[in-house]
């Protein structure tokens, strides 16, 4: 039984990743910081397509910013290009179920520092990518994320976060909430009016404690949600490698 806020007396085994035998994309996610807030489920549900329902935890919907460095992005048979394949990205996401009971991620927005990546994400994967001015700077355990949206709008939406990564989570600290917020292996999109889903294979996140030294963001409000309230739940990770499947209906 989880305690209020998702805490637990003992660690919980992480959900296992699916196997993506025929990936259409390889990616490496580095210097990841997850920043999550509670929301009333009806606030989030109002922004979802009718095919999806909020997946709550402790009676709340959860909305998160995922700030990271994307590296070694490539398709099968093509090597990663040094400049094109590495760039910062910041995602705004929530957690949902479809009519078949499958759980996954719904992206409200994805901001990427490469225009080609943003255009490819919109045109090839039907995801709400935006082109933004971005940077990820790391010094002495501190990570400085900067994201200022260029297009499409709202122009100027931002996420400037300063994060200090701490010690790794102990096994007993890997509770239901930590897995609920980070161990996600399916994403949803709507393609030509139909719900589509893709699987993502990756190893368990090596999670660390994290401290938020500063946050100035408006990506949440730009998505149509009220500004977050209260202290966020933070997790940091050095990263994982991922294999992404094609869309399925």
From TrEMBL:
Report the superkingdom from the record: Bacteria
| InterPro entries membership | ADC_dom_sf, DUF2071
Protein's name according to its UniProt entry: DUF2071 domain-containing protein
